[in-house]
User: What shape does this take?
Amino acid sequence: YEAYANMEAIQRLVEELCHAVAVSVTGSAVVKTGGVAIDFSKPWARLDLLQGIEERSGIAPSAFDSLESAKRAMAEAGLASLTEHDVGGIIEKMLERFVEPHLTQPTFVQNYPIETSPLAKKKLDEPRFTRRFEGYVLGRELCNAFGELNDPIDQRQRMQLQAEQLAAGNHEANPLDEDFLYALEVGMPPAGGLGIGMDRLAMLMTDAESIRDVILFPTMRPHQ
Assistant: This one.
């Protein structure tokens, strides 16, 4: 987390971090991995999530205006929709199917749906979507980040909705967290948050084919 940082500041942080790591580890901002030259020397591409889906699948953003039309679009795309509880979940499944495999060079996919981003600030001009992005390289997610939601009233409403979905059988939903809500009520400053898959970053920088090649104890398992 970085206090008083917004989503754009976190994007710059990711760009600078990956550039610095690439130069430190390989001696160049252009890293050859998986037979592909990945260029960390320039700003990452920015891709609106719905725009990316439309470009790759032909499905217009209007298809996601309601749950019914989103399920129809999903079925027409050959994906099962029976277990989907909201439009946001369908949008992210479409992203996984049509867009992610094509994100070879460093790309930020941004403007994620509110249903799957319960801790991110809303977009002021499109409140169904949030100030969240995910970074992709070689078709794999490298990081997840957003402008942190610090409005306790908005956060409580979203957590209550998540709790209702959890009770209805959506196992991807989250329970209501009173301790977290209390912390927001006491006062959380505007902030940007970031999570990076360090193992995946290590794989990129070392041209590792498997995550087992970069973690210290790949064969260890937790005690049952």
